[in-house]
């Protein structure tokens, strides 16, 4: 699960080949930019705090230039992302063998709930998560 989350520059052109038919993003993009800290995961029909599943601090940062960075309990990763409908779709560097789709279920300025679908080769993992936006400073 190392190659899962979010950020770095120069690769915006990598999405040039993505479909131009992607639906417009359903939310204000400005709400996505910044660092989101994983708070809870949905396991066995209940919400569980991240500390209780042993992940510790795990965060994803989305930059306005289309790059992301993930650090913490899920491993470290960088890549590019795009918006499509209610989804944020991220691809890791290099080679884009890992693809993550974050289907936003609820979004406010400080909280987000989403369904993450992580694909690497033929393996697919689906997890529902809640995050809190980290305030600058």
Structure in words:
There is one protein chain. This protein has 137 residues and is mainly β. Helix content is 0%, strand content 51%. The chain is built from no helices and 9 strands. Strands 1-3-4-5-6-7-8-9 form an 8-stranded antiparallel beta barrel. β7 (98-107) and β8 form a beta hairpin. Residues 1-19 have low confidence and may be disordered.
Number of DSSP helical runs: 0
Per the principal axes of the C-alpha atoms, what is the gross shape?
globular
> What helical percentage do the residues reach?
under 10%
Q: How are the strands of the largest sheet arranged? A: 1-3-4-5-6-7-8-9
* Overall number of strands: 9
What class do helices, strands and sheet pairing give?
A: mainly beta
Straight-line distance between termini:
29 Å
**Overall average residue pLDDT:** 80
Please trace the helix and strand order, writing H or E for each element.
Answer: EEEEEEEEE
Estimated radius of gyration? 14 Å
Main sheet attributes: strand count, strand direction, barrel closure? 8 strands, antiparallel, barrel
Strand content: over 45%
Can you tag this structure with a few keywords?
mainly beta, 8-stranded antiparallel β-barrel, 0% helix, 137 residues, disordered N terminus, 51% strand
Short description:
The chain has an eight-stranded antiparallel β-barrel with strand order 1-3-4-5-6-7-8-9. The protein is built from no helices and nine strands. The protein has strands spanning 34-43, 46-49, 58-62, 67-72, 77-84, 87-92, 98-107, 111-120, 123-133.
